[in-house]
Design brief:
With 195 residues, the protein is α/β, with parallel strands linked by helices. The protein is built from 6 helices and 8 strands, in the order E-H-E-H-H-E-H-E-H-E-H-E-E-E. Strand 3 (79-82), helix 4 (91-95) and strand 4 form a beta-alpha-beta unit.
Length: 195
Amino acid sequence: MITLDGVMQAPGGPKEDTSGAFKYDGWTSPYSDKVYGEVVQKELKQTADYLLGRKTFEIWAGYWPEHGDFWPGINKGMKYVFSKSLKKSDPKVTGWKNSVVIKNLADIKKLKNSKGPDIQVWGSSSLVQLLLKNDLVDELRLKIHPLTLGKGKKLFNGGAIPAAFTLTASAVTSTGVIIASYKRAGKVNTGTVGA
């Protein structure tokens, strides 16, 4: 979930993530409609494991274990939390079933090359930027909302490598949200316009 200017911070509700004096928590709320809801429900029903940054993990660990009826897969799937400060014995980690701390980029690469379900990243802006910078993103699923916020944590901020993507699915909601899925398609091609 991103804005036109790439902000992805705190889309879900009040006080979700107020770091950096962010004051627009819950900015996606006015844009829900039937199409948006159907896309999200389809995503929530997919079998997946999850790679999360520490802040997203801490927010979710305080919420999803008690709300699994809405998204059962989040409690069933493995949660790999990328953190240099969290310990394996941290109550947030041990208290949320199927949660494991990983510490470095080598761990992520090993995880990416392992067998098992797809690995999804939700939120976790710094982690997504690290993945983009190291060519570890196979697919982007974007919900581009028709607003700008100026400040906040951004999706593309920190050195994504040049990479081409192919549009694999798209929809536009009645509220103007563009829902688009892109798969990695190799290197960037250049040329001359009109040639």
